[in-house]
Every structure is written in C-alpha cells, then in structure tokens.
Amino acid sequence: MAATTRWISSKREASVWLLLLVLALAAGLASCDGGPTGTQEEEDLGPDATVVFRGLTVSDVDDAAAGGSPLAAATPGVAYVSASPGTFSDADSITVTNLANGQTRTVEPIDGGFDPVPLEAEPDDAIEFVVHRSDGSTRSYLTRVPARKRPRVVRTVPPKDATDVVLSSSVMAVFSEPMDARTVTAGTFQLQLNGQPVAGTLALTADGLRAEFSPAEPLHTGTTYLLVISTGVRDPEGDPLEAEVGIRFTTEGRVVFASVSVGGWHTCATGVNGSSYCWGWNGYGQLGNATTTENSRAVLVGGEHSFVSLPAALYHTCGLTASATAYCWGWNGDGELGNGTTTQSAMPVLVSGGHSFASMTYSCGLTADGTAYCWGPNGRGQLGAGTLVTHSTTPLPVSGGLMFTSLATGGAHTCALTADGAAYCWGNNYYGELGTVTSETCYPTETAPPCSRTPVPVTGELSFASLGAGGLHTCGLTADGYAYCWGTNGDGQLGTVTPPGQNQYTPVPVDGSRSYISISGGWSHTCALTASGEAFCWGDNEGAQLGNGGQGGRVRYPVRVVGSHRFEALTTNTGYHTCGLTADGDVYCWGWNEYGQLGLPPSATPEGSSAVPLLVEVP
Asked: I need a labelling partner for 371 at 20 to 30 A (CA). Which of 123, 274, 564, 592 fits?
C-alpha cells in the first residue's frame, strides 16, 4: 500500500496545512535483520519507491496547524509520521528520525503501528525508521519525503470486524494529519445502526488528529454497528480523505457483571469489561449519567472512568478505580462527594486530597496502610474524626491512630475491623448500632441521641472476619462464619426472635447456627450468603426485600431466598431492596421497585415490588 506526504514552507500562511508522505519498499529488495547485539542494515528506498509497509504514512503539517505542537514556528515544515496497526508486528519500540536535521521520536507501538508523531522536515528529507525487537535486534528502513498525498485514517477503535465490543465503548478514528474541525460533523462521521445514525456527541481533539464519538446510551448487546467516515472530512487545505471508510463491528452478547451495590432507591454495578452501570431513582444525579431522570434500565456512568467498585448510598454513589482513585456523584448537600463543595453533580467528580484508597464504602475510604478517611455529614459523629464540625466537604482522617483492614458504613454510623479481628464503630448510637453504650452526644440539644465522634470498640470478646452495617444496626461474621448483630431490632433485623423490638448494645447471635461467608445490612433488614451460594435474609419485608416469595410484615429469623440461584456476592447497603451476583456474572434483584431499582420498569412489578429474584438485563 502507498502513502504520501504534503509539505509546506514556513513562509506560507499558518492556516495552510502540509502534505502527506508515502513510504515504500521495493518488492524483491533484500533486507537483513540485526542480530541480538542490535546491529542493523538500512534499506535505501528512495523518494519514489513502492510501499511495502502496510499503511505506513507520513504527513507534513505546519506548526500553527498542529494545535499546540512544541515545534518552533520558524521551522520549514512538520512531518506527521504514523503507521497503521500490523505494520511493525514484531516491534517493541520504533524510533523515527529525520536524517537531514537529526530530530528523533521514539514511540511505543499500538497493535503493531503508531499514531502520528511530528518531525521537522522539508521535501526530500530522508526519514529513517528503526524497529527495536524484544530480543535486542533491530531493523531499519529509509524513505524520503515526497510531495503530496491525501489524508487517510490510520486506525479506528473498535477496529474493523471487531467482536465482543463492550457496550460502554466510544468510537474513535485517528487521522494521518490534522483535520479541519468544520468538516468533522454528524454528517461526515457517523455511527450507524440499521442505516440510521446513533445519537451521541462527536468531538475532534485540539490537535485535529483524533475524532471521538460517544453514544448517548450504551450500545445494544449482540448488535452489529457501522462506523462511516465520508470523504467530506477534509484537512484545512481542503483535501478530502483518500477514500470513504466503513468499519463494521459487533458488540458483546451480554454484559458480565463483576460487582453490584445497592443504594437507597438505585443500584449500581461494574462489568468485567471495565464498564459501569447504574439504574433506578436519579433525583440527585446518583446514576452518574449527566441527567436527573430515573431509569429502570441500566445506564452507563459517564466520565470514561473504569471502576472496580461502586458503593451506593441513599442519594449518592462513589466509585473506586483500579489506580486507587475515588470519585463520587449525586447528592452533595453535606459534602458527600468529597470534592470541596456542596454542589450536587450528575457526573463523577474527583474526591479531594490526593488519597489512594485500597477500598472504600460510600464517603469513606481505606488506604493501603490501613488509615481510614471519611467525608460528608457529621451531625452524629459519623466521620470519626473527633471534630465538632457538622460536615466536611473533603476527607478527614479517622482519629485514634487505628489501622483497619475493612470498613462498613451504615445510615449514620461506620464500623471497621483491625487486622486481629477487633471491631470498632463511630457515629450515631441511639439504637446501639455501635455495639457498646456511649454517653457522648454529638449536637447540643436536650434530646440529642448518644453517639461517638471517635472509634469505640464493640463490646465482647468476639473476633470478626467481616462486617455489614445497616440503617440502624450492624452485623459481623466470625472467622467460622457465625453471624452476630447489634442495634435496633424493631423489624427483626438482628435475626433473633428474642428479645423482640429491643435495642441491643452488644452483639447477639443470629438464630439458626448457620455459617455464612458474607453479610450485608439493609435499612431495616439483613441478608447473608453461605459458602454454597444460598442467600438468607431476615427483618422487615414490607417491600418483599427478603426475597422469600412473600411480602409484608417482618421475619425475625433467617429465611432462604427462593429460586435455584447460587450467588457469589450479596448486597443490600442501607436499601429497601437486595441484589445478588452469580458466578456467571448475572445480577438478580428483589424488593421495592417503585423507581426501577430492580432493573425493570415499575410496570413490570404491579405490586410495586418483587418477592422473588429478577434478572437485571442490559438493553
């Protein structure tokens, strides 16, 4: 294949763009590979040689047109050098040098090619490509800058005929030289489904080299799309693309979920492909899709972040990336988003402070060394920072110098475990949710409930392996899997028949002598998971959140969730519904559904809830 270059003198107008370079290798020319010591032989291709490197191109562009290129304005011209995927399939790195002036760029290959890099150049300059291989050997090629070539598309994401494309994907094209933004429009750059354009936003990067289309909604599962880039796309000199581009690709058959988290009236989940979804009530933007419109179908969380966990709260959501960076979105009246403001956001915003968190709950994070930070409301001491402030818009360290291994956040309290299994809690203690009696009050009124602004140990000699905090209660599992709970028992959420309705300031065993591997507290119910994947729930069942096939009343002992499902994870964080994740990556939810928090329209659950697990489907 051939490619060429355009060249411009610096004396020309800054708005004039330069030319495209064609690189070629004469068919039949002998070539030599360098040995492991790094020796090499050059192939002098000459300015008019035929291309042998598939899709290898060089384009010249004036500095003013380069959109902020560091090259000096006085240079004679600029060559943009690029290679399509597969051109250098064995390359570890590639060094590109203009032998006329010594300017060099070293690039890391992208699928055996590389995106445009600038070199100062004039017509007939010799351009050398040195391919560095993993075994230490090299191979070099020479070509010269010829006069002119129309622009082309270097690569696209997804590539042609790709399958299993993630539903959260944006569509991107890289051009061989900067394009005129006025020509990259919805009419010339389209993602199509069945011949019709898909709604979304299109943007050209400041350097003019990349166009990206972001669909307004996640792509459909198992569906073929067509990206069409017409020759109406032109460079600033008016030259059109050398040919229309059509890139067909197919999305993944279904979304495989990696985690799920329940909020008050919404649900969020991460996919194994790095995508993040939320559904349900969205009055404060807690779905993170730049709107406040509720949605019973999973919508993509905006911002192009890839989250490994999405802890959901009553009215906001937080996300933790693989690089340990925390973001939050939704309600922010008391600084729940941790970004230094009290302005709500319908898109993820960065939590302030520069902390790297190994794990997090909503509005609390744990660093790799075990230091806990919390942010948001503090009227009941739930920040654990020992401060009298009513709230904090940025993370504050939990006082006491304790190092923790895990956190569990409830309605207005938080609990944590140390490495030796000791449980500590702080915040509201009106119902005994801290697991001990406290006399401190957190705001100066005669009827102020007891609380603690700093961590206090849970009473007793128990050592816990995990914790789960509910709205007004807390539960823990010992190393052998036995469950204990404390706090309010008004709806039977402690899982014990006696004493009914009384607050428990010390851990009491859950009835049934069953062993569990995880436990999660809802607002007024609790659920736990056995090693065989069976789910059990107890407590309030007005919204059918126990999943036992019935609705109404309360159950003060564990009952099995109906169905043959086997779950790997279970969550009901301070919510009125419950969700479980299977080993196959499916999410099932049950309980209240008035806002679509089960992943189905409210009309699909005429009673306003479901007493059995329902499969969440991504459209």
From this structure: 274
Residue 253 CB contacts under 8 Å (≥ 6 apart), including other chains: 164, 221, 222
Q: How far is CA 17 from the centre of its chain?
A: 38
Tell me the sheet residues that pair with 485: 475, 508
Handedness of CA 76, 176, 96, 31 (dihedral sign): negative
Quick check: helix, strand or coil at residue 602? Answer: helix
pLDDT digit string, tens, across residues 579-613: 999 999 999 999 999 999 999 999 999 889 999 99
DSSP label at residue 5: -
Segment holding 278, helix H or strand E: strand 276-280
Among positive and negative, which fits the CA dihedral 342, 343, 348, 349? negative
DSSP track, 289-346: SS----EEEEEE-SSS--EEE--B-SSEEEEEETTS-EEEEE--TTSTT-SSS---EE
Q: Could you tell me the end-to-end alpha-carbon distance of the chain, in angstroms, rounded to an integer? A: 41
pLDDT digits (tens, 9 = 90+) for 435-490: 999 988 887 665 678 999 999 999 999 999 999 999 999 999 999 999 999 999 99
Q: What is the CATH number of domain 153-250?
A: 2.60.40.1220
* Token pair in block for residue 478: 């010992």
Q: Which fold has domain 258-615?
A: Methylamine Dehydrogenase; Chain H (2.130.10)
Q: Domain-by-domain residue ranges, the chain?
A: 20-144, 153-250, 258-615
Q: In the chain, what is the greatest distance between 2 CA atoms, to the nearest angstrom?
A: 94
pLDDT band at 47 (very low <50, low <70, confident <90, very high): very low
Nearest to 176 by CA among 113, 127, 125: 113
- Do domains 153-250 and 258-615 share one topology? The answer is no
